[in-house]
Amino acid sequence: MAEGERHSLPDSSEDSPPATQNFIIPKKEIHTVPDMGKWKRSQAYADYIGFILTLNEGVKGKKLTFEYTVSEAIEKLVALLNTLDRWIDETPPVDQPSRFGNKAYRTWYAKLDEEAENLVATVVPTHLAAAVPEVAVYLKEAVGNSTRIDYGTGHEAAFAAFLCCLCKIGVLRVDDQIAIVFKVFNRYLEVMRKLQKTYRMEPAGSQGVWGLDDFQFLPFIWGSSQLIDHPYLEPRHFVDEKAVNENHKDYMFLECILFITEMKTGPFAEHSNQLWNISAVPSWSKVNQGLIRMYKAECLEKFPVIQHFKFGSLLPIHPVTSC
Fold this sequence. Notes:
The protein contains 15 helices and four strands. The protein is mainly alpha-helical.
């Protein structure tokens, strides 16, 4: 299945889409549970999952410290994320009675809401300026909900959709695959962790210990792919503090585990039961395949997550058109 789906990243030789394309502001299309069928048959779903699997293949067996090319577009995306990070420093938490959901997050978010199109315009070349309002919607959806002051896998999916859209308009290319995960997505994770810590954001729709993680999913998929065929690190090692401390700078999966252990107290098996179970899987390739299945079932096929997803001209709701 994965083989046929790897068509999301344009080759460097491919031209950008014609400037005549009609870009539209993405909107919600999944209003009731029966609408989920439309999503699973949609071009958006095929392109989104194809994008995730392409990147999964691209980072297989590679450390974060692996040498890869960094294009100008990648540098600009990192600069965009650095701006979001700086705004957190400029918007300290406010004193309030409730411990979670610091209202200063709303101030931070309002700034992003106002500046999103300007930020995206720094990444998108002028001949594609018409795409900016459409692409910027996914950036605004990618950082949490300003009403509930929460963050979860649906927001993470919006960031992946944002990157997928940049691939579809030719801003990101096939040569950027590794940098998309290791440089851009990794920086995004750092900024999201800082948001979660600074404003004490609630997990969106957390399933408690039965979820994989309160906030993220994709770094576990791509992080397990990085560890496939590792000479000595096995899935059982990620619950070993020493192995995590020594290797987290090389592997996203272990960086996620480190963050969980910093944020949660008590035995790992209790606060992260699903991950604890995964540590018993014999190989990283089996972990990776299992996580992809779980991501589809627990995130992409769950109405509470997908009802918030937005569809436009780049990730359309219409059924898959055969290439």
